[in-house]
């Protein structure tokens, strides 16, 4: 797959995501030519903390996967789940689930 680079200016949506009683601000960027989700950014962990670094790296990885044509539904279904089989096992899974919901709306 070839990476579909996003233009410098593109539409985006910022929303709140709550996972394990913590609130995160999530910005989802869209490819204006296709309307597909092409990137995700997350803030809410303490700046400079390990979790902040993990979220930065996870968002880069998710964004690259999206730009290489991986569908949000594929990302969501590939993430680990808790014992109930539905709840995401991590904040990264919660981000993927949010991308799935946004792609469906």
Automatic annotation (TrEMBL):
Coiled coil in keyword set: no
EC number: 1.17.4.1
Entry keyword annotation includes Nucleotide-binding: yes
Transmembrane residue ranges: none
TSCPD domain sequence ranges: 10-99
Highest taxon, organism lineage: Bacteria
InterPro entries listed in its UniProt record: TSCPD_dom
Keywords: DNA synthesis, Nucleotide-binding
Reaction(s) catalysed (UniProt annotation): a 2'-deoxyribonucleoside 5'-diphosphate + [thioredoxin]-disulfide + H2O = a ribonucleoside 5'-diphosphate + [thioredoxin]-dithiol
Pfam families assigned: TSCPD (PF12637)
Enzyme class per UniProt: oxidoreductase
Family stated for the protein in its record: Belongs to the ribonucleoside diphosphate reductase class-2 family.
Protein name as catalogued: ribonucleoside-diphosphate reductase
Species, as recorded: Chelatococcus sambhunathii
């Amino acid at each position: 797959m070839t990476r579909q680079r996003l233009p410098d200016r593109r539409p985006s949506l910022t929303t709140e995501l709550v996972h394990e009683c913590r609130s995160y601000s999530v910005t989802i960027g869209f490819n204006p030519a296709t309307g597909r989700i092409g990137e995700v950014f997350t803030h809410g962990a303490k700046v400079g903390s390990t979790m902040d670094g993990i979220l930065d790296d996870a968002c880069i990885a998710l964004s690259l996967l999206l730009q290489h044509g991986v569908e949000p539904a594929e990302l969501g279904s590939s993430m680990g789940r808790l014992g109930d089989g539905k709840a995401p096992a991590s904040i990264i899974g919660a981000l993927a689930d949010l991308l799935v919901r946004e792609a469906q709306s």
